[in-house]
Amino acid sequence: MGNATSVNTTSKPKGNHTEVTSAQSTPTKGSLAGPSTAQNGTHAGSAGEGTSKQASASAGEANQSGAVTSKKGEEKKDRKIDSAFPKVPLKVVHDNANSSLSSKKHSSASKGKGDGDGLTVPTAWNAASLIPRTRFCGTVENTNKTKDEMSRKLTKERLHVLKKQSKNGVLAVQKKNVDVVFHVTHDGNDGNVSDSTISDQIKEMNQAYANYGFSFTLTNTTRSDNKTWFHGVTSGNSLETDMKKALRVGDASILNLYTVKFPDNLLGFSTFPFDYDDAPNSDGVVFLYSTMPGGDAQGYNQGKTAVHEVGHWLGLYHTFQGGCADPGDSVDDTPPQAEPTSGCPTKKDTCTGDSLPDPIHNYMDYSSDPCLNQFTQGQAVRMDALTSHYRKL
Ligand SMILES: [Zn+2]
């Protein structure tokens, strides 16, 4: 079925499309949904709390603030911001200073399924009247503790190196360029996004990551007029496997982006760097074509979905991962957060005792596109560390 072609010369009109479909959402692989409004607290909250609080508090977090550590089974424990990060912006440098990162390969157990397995998607979430929609990311949550501990160790080592190199307390992460191959799937005109839209999407990614160490260069575009893939691919199904098998190119350092329509309300999903060795053919980001700049996904059409998913591809978790408990998202300077954000609230603080609002403007939350505009220094260091080790970037 892979009638893929590699033509990238003509700009074709974007298909007009109404994007919420029947919404038969079946999170077969532990999707963390952020259903709208009323459902948000129950469903999403339970997803968050059931995750990594079981992770060991001795897993090597560079937590110098004496922040409260979590105990197994504890429901909510406040997680405090690590003082290891200076209160100044990161500086991005262009030299390729060697890090002291170990290049030792990590062999892991089988890829864990997300804790979202078995979650029941609320009926209202399936309603055709789902307006406004919320972000719905199908990235499979990592539950492999060994991979988590390795990621934290790599990040801690990277931070140590950066702090040694820092001047006046300014951390300087390396500037890395990522080559991008863009795979457009479409059904006739539907989804056949123009080259200029693709260019705008890459620009949006470059803008978002400019202060955090990454740039992106489009090296090729493929177009596949394949309605089966376009309408049917979702996280973890056989069509995803088929599509990637036919289209994916390059090694761990190459970012393969795929646009589809999705049958189930997803905005996108991604793989993590530490999963590459186990499943190289699955590597990449799949996202809803209408989330690209100027698309039809109302509230989610500034290209921030790709920014969010690429954050996973570079090694980041959702800011609400693990809820309020340590280690949360395994990043020390993102405030603890119990559940995903919907829309762009003026005030939100779901973890008491930390006196810090939820990071609703962080690209790794579920807020609407206009709300998202930042990463943190800790996230930049983690992306730097994990892409050095696993993607050789
Ligand atoms: Zn996500």
Describe this structure in words.
The chain has eight helices and ten strands. The protein has helices at 40-49, 123-126, 145-165, 195-209, 227-232, 238-247, 304-313, 377-391, and strands at residues 4-5, 32-33, 91-93, 136-137, 172-174, 176-186, 214-225, 255-260, 268-270, 285-288. With 393 residues, it is α/β, with parallel strands linked by helices. The longest helix is centred in the middle third of the chain and has 21 residues, at 145-165. Helix 4 (195-209) links the parallel strand 6 and strand 7. It has a single domain (51-391), classed as Collagenase (Catalytic Domain), CATH 3.40.390. The strands form three sheets. It has a six-stranded mixed β-sheet. It has a two-stranded antiparallel ribbon with strand order 2-4. The structure holds zinc ion. The site of zinc ion (ZN) has 5 residues, from helix 7. Belongs to the peptidase M43B family. It comes from Acaromyces ingoldii. This is Zincin. Residues 1-68 have a biased composition (Polar residues).
Can you give keywords for this protein?
393 residues; alpha/beta; Collagenase (Catalytic Domain); six-stranded mixed sheet; two-stranded antiparallel sheet; 10 strands; 12% strand; disordered N terminus; binds zinc ion; disulfide bond; Zincin; metalloprotease
Low-confidence stretches: 1-77, 95-131
Structural class from helices and strands? alpha/beta
CATH architecture: 3-Layer(aba) Sandwich
Estimated share of beta-strand residues? 5-15%
**Unique ligands:** zinc ion
Q: Largest beta sheet, briefly?
A: 6 strands, mixed
- Using the coordinates above, name the CATH class: Alpha Beta
Name given to the CATH homologous superfamily? Collagenase (Catalytic Domain)
The number of helical segments is 8
Topology pattern, helix = H, strand = E: EEHEHEHEEHEHHEEEHH
Strand order, sheet with most strands = 1-7-6-8-10-9
Mean model confidence by pLDDT? 76
Family: Belongs to the peptidase M43B family.
Protein name: Zincin
GO molecular function: metal ion binding; metallopeptidase activity
InterPro entries: MetalloPept_cat_dom_sf (IPR024079), Peptidase_M43 (IPR008754)
